[in-house]
Design goal:
174 residues; seven-stranded mixed sheet; 29% helix
Amino acid sequence: MSNPPASFSPSRVTFAYLTHRNLGTVKKLNSVLFPIKYSDKFYQDIIAPEVEDFCQLIYYNDVPVGNICCRLENKDLYLMTMGVLAPYRSKQLGSQALKRVIQAAASHSKPKIRRIYLHVQVSNIDAKRFYERHGFKEAGIKEDYYKKIMPRDAWILERIVESEDKQDQEKTQS
């Protein structure tokens, strides 16, 4: 039996923890994905051991195409950035990355994470809908959140984190 043509081969989506070795890749992706330049402190913070489950590179067929970066704030997880290069959107890569972070938050115990929250520019309706499809709800609007881009206002979106036990119970009931 012959192998199927390459166009029919299944895609390979993988994730990698952020390290000093791949930080240049993250910086390059961010320069393309986001309209703001991030500080050196931002990049040092995202490779800290305590956030390794919440900050990851997204690969599609071994090509880095996106990333997700969060920080711990007491019992909250703040989703700072998440982006996927335009040609790779609509392939569920962002959804897979977000689900991984949600699962990691649910299993995190020190501290127990109670919610994940983020800001979305009020003009980015597609992003708002994406997060709402993943259980996030609008918690308010932060006026003048963005200093160098217009519009300056941002929606605050949040999702309450359920423990792994509760998630397992819901899966068995469905």
